[in-house]
Amino acid sequence: MSIAEPPPLKTQPSKTHDPLGTAKGLNSGALGLIGNTVIGLSSVAPAYSLAATLGYVVLAVGDKAPSMFLVAFIPMLLTAFAYRELNRDTPDCGTSFTWGTKAFGPWIGWMAGWGLAVSAIIVLANTAEIAAIYLFEVLGLHAAAESLAAKVLLGCFFIAAMTYVSFRGILISERLQNVLIAVQFTVLIGVSVLALSKVFGGTAGPQAVTPRLDWIIPTGVSMSSAAQAIILCIFIYWGWDACLAVGEETKDSERTPGRAAVLTTVILVATYVLVGYAVQSFAGFGDTGIGLNNPENVDDVLTTLGGPVAGPVAASLLLLTVSISALSSTQTTILPTARGTLSMAVYEALPRRFSTVHPRYMTPGFGTLVMGAAALLFYLVLSFASANALQDSVASLGLAVAFYYGITAYACVWYFRRTLLDSARNLFMRGIFPLLGALCMTWAFVQSAVDMLRPDYGFTAFGPFGGVFVLGVGMLVVGIPLMLLCFATGSRNFFRGRTLTADTEVKVPES
Fold this sequence. Notes:
The protein is mainly α and about 500 residues long. The chain has helices at about 35-45, 45-60, 65-90, 95-105, 105-140, 140-145, 150-170, 170-200, 225-235, 240-245, 255-285, 300-305, 305-345, 365-385, 385-415, 425-450, 465-475, 480-490, 490-495, and strands at about 460, 465. Strands 1-2 form a two-stranded antiparallel ribbon.
């Protein structure tokens, strides 16, 4: 028996009427494999993600940070297989919402869609602020970087500008991202290679340490520390599923998005391990200077190394790269979420207004604008309530991501349960691998949620509960009354299983 990729799946006859009746109106065939992969990489924002989390991963597991990148990559890859298989069967821009509904019914499917929306709202607020802060630093406007009013003003401008770019169409989004992602990887890989060459050449300084093979072996790490590091690593990988959300705008929508998702995760793990090794070996683990155990460096160990590695020009370039990375993610995060609301509205899980597509730009115009507005509101509320709360919201993001990734992976196993034994390929790609990925996501969610309950976890606390837990779980729980509100105000057909079931033929653009 072989586990080679089978020929494309044929669309099965519909047992229920397609609620839209025609293609969703998106720009069919606008993206190829490279463009789709660029969207996925840009949504992840590797430079920003590393700058924001690498120090905390080192704080949790010491020199085992590269091993955590590998450990977290495994459930990501297994989940990517689930996404690929589901996309081959049902290439719908609703992704987790659509697949969760077809597998488990409308209530779980709706919450999967909400998990994606929550993740996007949280990260949009943070990427906009990071882009603003780092741009001010590049320009030498240090006072502005510390000013709440200046940060919020520029951050709001970035959210509005990137919402407009997303509104204008998928092609302009792809062209912008081609440039931004090229800058990110050129700088990240260039600085990493230079740092390692100095370490091996003996010119990195007395703080440097020789790289060791056991850095990628996850031994000697407690379960709690591993969970803390993995939930952070889930955050730095999160976003690759944007490949699937723009699948209906991609050539060969049954195959290309799934391939792009797997390719994106492989590129990311290689980059993260390289950067992890470069940072650890060049900076060392001292508690002074650029050492990774220096508390002043934990928020951003990446740009701290710019000057020592390649001088002030490289330091400014790294600052600019992180700003570009955050700005890039601000734009690409809007894309999948707006398309998710489009799909939800098509099947009457959200008000019909969200199903409107701009006739000229062929984008979900209303959903895009609503996402931008929601991110603006969340950003303003947390910024003026507490800067620490905004930081804690990033730490809580992994919970929402693990939540809807887990639902999607479980959905793959259940949806294909009757065909798992048809071939070895089906058993592994639709059964064993997705199930392992789902179990990993479940463990990461539960273990992290238990740890986050502690009031000393993060920067804020609400009575006896940690602020990270309250923000992470609280944002997910908010989805329940919103779901009930949708049920009560016009979505009853969806929740009664009349618009989307396991047998519904999901409409996709004709190639």
